[in-house]
Amino acid sequence: EADIYQTPRYLVIGTGKKITLECSQTMGHDKMYWYQQDPGMELHLIHYSYGVNSTEKGDLSSESTVSRIRTEHFPLTLESARPSHTSQYLCASSDPRGPYNEQFFGPGTRLTVL
Amino acid sequence: SQQGEEDPQALSIQEGENATMNCSYKTSINNLQWYRQNSGRGLVHLILIRSNEREKHSGRLRVTLDTSKKSSSLLITASRAADTASYFCATFPFSGSARQLTFGSGTQLTVLP
Description:
Low-confidence stretches of chain A: none
Largest interface: A-B, 27 and 27 residues
Strand content of chain B: over 45%
Distance between the termini of chain B: 37 Å
Number of helices of chain A: 0
Oligomer: heterodimer
Shape of chain B: globular
Strand content of chain A: 35-45%
Number of helices of chain B: 0
Largest sheet of chain B: 6 strands, mixed
Order of helices and strands of chain B: EEEEEEEEEEE
Number of strands of chain A: 11
Mean pLDDT of chain A: 92
Structural class of chain B: mainly beta
Distance between the termini of chain A: 32 Å
């Protein structure tokens, strides 16, 4: 099991609520990622970070935002959740010093917006 | 468009049989990786094959890579019910300033006891 954690594991909320999905890792990895995955479908990269104070948007446009104030912490925030945000959100990290970019994943947060 | 495409989308076999999944991609790669995802969980890295390698083994896993055809296959031998999961290939590009892993759509493997 990788040392990368996500909370909550499951979240059911109403439309318009602000939510923050937490992700933390204890491996000292500089690179971190957020993916969005619908059931049975491929992963879509929505945000990534090369290190503290670095954030970039991924291939899939997302209304969420991220921050990277500490190496180990990479939270994702939705200011106003909508039913279209219902999905599974996966956080991952990798060691940029490694040559092959193997990624370590957290268990995911399954978000349902009513 | 998606870099990696897995084939088949779903595969159902009996315990003890071998399972083969294929992945095709479009651009030049530095390496190709296979991941496994149990239902409702995160992905777990299984094996990596570099672009200059043709075959790699890890336990019951065998991965091949054909860069001329831009394709890879994952073979799981003597499958077990516990191998039931989704399997994703992911490609890491050969060049580019912001290289990231790109995941395919996955193969759902069901191993029947």
